[in-house]
Write the structure tokens for this entry.
Amino acid sequence: METVKHCGSCGRRIEWRRRWAAVWDEVRYCSDACRRNKPRGKDHELEQRILGLLDALARDATICPSEAARALFPETWRDHMEDARRAARRLAAAGRIVITQQGAVVDSSTAKGPIRLRKTHPRGTP
Ligand SMILES: [Zn+2]
């Protein structure tokens, strides 16, 4: 049994709980709020933009999630910062990117404060 999964909305880790034992396979979201706030078109666009921005850079380069928000929503990007962070956490949960702070990879579920995003390095490379 898979004991760790990630919320399909906010991308944070969902820890197994005894009360979910019977329905664990069906648990997709960490909370009712996340279930109501499922990723929509703009959220998938943010994911794609993050990957696109990183693809254009050197392998160790990082971006701020705001860069994806600014690229998609030039006027209202501040309103989409949390959406961009959620998109980043979903990508990190999927192993597509890593989230860093001060140059070190951090736990995307618990990192507080400003984060940066970097491409995942292929297995076996530093
Ligand atoms: Zn969630």
